[in-house]
Design goal:
Bound molecules: alpha-D-ribofuranose
CATH architecture: 3-Layer(aba) Sandwich
Largest sheet: 9 strands, mixed
Distance between the termini: 18 Å
Shape: globular
CATH class: Alpha Beta
Oligomer: single chain
Number of helices: 10
Radius of gyration: 18 Å
Strand order of the largest sheet: 5-4-1-8-9-10-11-12-13
CATH superfamily: Ribokinase
CATH topology: UDP-N-acetylmuramoyl-L-alanine:D-glutamate ligase
Number of domains: 1
Strand content: 15-25%
Structural class: alpha/beta
Helix content: 25-40%
Length: 307
C-alpha cells in the first residue's frame, strides 16, 4: 500500500473545555507527537500488518527529521517523503476536552509543497492500493486520482473537505474507487447537511450518484454507513471510554484500506475499521494511539479479520 498525504507535528493540550472565539483556556502540559492525516493513515495500516510506503513532504527542520524517523520505526518505507529545505514542517495545534472531543488548527507548511514529483513518487511502486488524504494541494489530489484511475485501486479520504465546496464535489465527480468522509465532509460534497447514522446512510447513497464507486460515511461514535459495489450497510459504533478522538478517522481509513485490499467483504471491513477507530479513541494522541490487532480485540471484542 502507498499513502500520499500530510505529515504534521501535533502539539496537543488537554483543556477543561474547548475554547470559543475570543477565549483563552488554560490546559495541561503540551505533548509533541507525530501526526498528519497521511502519516496517521500509514501508521494505522502498518500496525495492522500492511506493507506501507509513504509519499509527502516535511520541512528541513528537526520536526521533519523526527516525523520521518517515526515512520521508519514503524517499518514504513519513507523513501518518497522529501524534505522541503526552506519550509517548516506541518504543525497542528490541538485542544482536547474531557470528553475526547478536539479542535484542530493546522499550519500546513511543507505539506502545501506536495506536487507532481511527489505524485509520481507515490506511483512508482503503488502496491495493492493507494490512499490519498486531503491535507495536500488540490492539484496533487486530482493528479493522483487521475493516475490511479484504471491502474490501481484508490481510497480518497476527503479530510478536510477542500474549499470552496464546489471543489470537493468536482473531485468526486471525476470518479473515485473508494471515498471515505465524515458527516461535514459528506455535506460539503453533497451541498446539504448530513447528521447521524441515518443521514450518513443517505449520504453514502448520494455520494455514489456524485461519482464514487464505493462510499463510506463515518458518523463518529454512532458508526458508519457504506454504499457501493457490494451493496449497502449501516454499521453501529462501538461503545468505549473515549479520551481523545484525534486520529480516529485516520485509523478508520488506514484499517479500511488494509481490509479492503486483502479482500475482506466491504461491510466486514467497515465494521473492522470502526472497531480500530474505537480502540484509537481510548488513548491520547494520533499515531501514539493507533491500535494493533490485540488492542482492537481487547477494547471492542472484535477479532481483526486478518489476524
Ligand atoms: O486527523 C488528525 C490529524 O489532523 C492530526 O494528527 C493533525 O496533524 C491533523 O492533520
Amino acid at each position: 500500500m502507498t499513502v500520499l498525504g500530510s505529515l504534521n507535528m501535533d502539539i496537543s493540550v488537554v483543556v477543561p473545555r474547548l475554547p470559543g472565539p475570543g477565549m483563552t483556556v488554560l490546559g495541561s502540559a503540551a505533548r509533541f507527537t507525530a501526526g498528519g492525516k497521511g502519516a496517521n493513515q500509514a501508521v494505522a495500516a502498518a500496525r495492522l500488518g500492511a506493507d506501507v510506503r509513504m509519499a509527502g513532504r516535511v520541512g528541513g527542520d528537526d520536526f521533519g527529521r523526527r516525523l520521518v524517523a517515526g515512520l521508519q520505526a514503524e517499518g514504513i518505507d519513507a523513501g518518497p517523503v522529501r524534505s522541503a529545505a526552506a519550509t517548516p514542517s506541518g504543525l497542528a495545534m490541538i485542544s482536547v476536552d474531557g470528553s475526547g472531543e478536539n479542535l484542530i488548527t493546522v499550519a500546513p507548511g511543507a505539506n502545501h509543497e506536495v506536487g507532481d514529483t511527489d505524485v509520481a513518487a507515490a506511483f512508482t511502486e503503488p502496491g495493492d492500493v493507494v490512499v490519498i488524504s486531503a491535507e495536500i494541494p488540490v492539484p496533487a489530489i486530482r493528479a493522483a486520482l487521475a493516475r490511479a484511475r484504471g491502474a490501481v485501486p484508490c481510497m480518497l479520504n476527503l479530510a478536510p473537505a477542500p474549499q470552496p465546496a464546489a471543489e470537493a464535489a468536482a473531485i468526486v465527480a471525476d470518479g473515485v474507487d473508494w471515498l471515505v468522509v465524515n458527516e461535514p465532509e459528506a455535506a460539503a460534497v453533497l451541498g446539504k447537511p448530513v447528521r447521524g447514522l441515518a443521514g450518513a446512510a443517505r449520504a453514502a447513497a448520494g455520494l455514489l450518484a456524485a461519482g464514487a464507486r464505493n462510499a463510506v460515511v463515518t458518523a463518529g461514535s454512532q458508526g458508519a454507513a457504506l454504499a457501493g459495489a457490494q451493496g449497502s450497510a449501516t454499521v453501529p459504533g462501538f461503545s468505549v471510554a473515549a479520551v481523545d478522538a484525534t486520529g480516529a478517522g485516520d485509523t478508520f481509513v488506514g484499517a479500511l484500506a488494509v481490509a479492503i485490499a486483502a479482500g475482506v467483504p466491504a461491510a466486514d471491513a467497515v465494521r473492522a475499521a470502526a472497531a480500530a477507530a474505537a480502540a484509537a479513541v481510548t488513548r491520547y494522541g494520533a499515531q501514539a494511539a493507533m491500535p494493533r490487532p490485540a488492542d482492537i480485540r481487547a477494547v471492542t471484542g472484535l477479532a481483526w479479520p486478518l489476524a
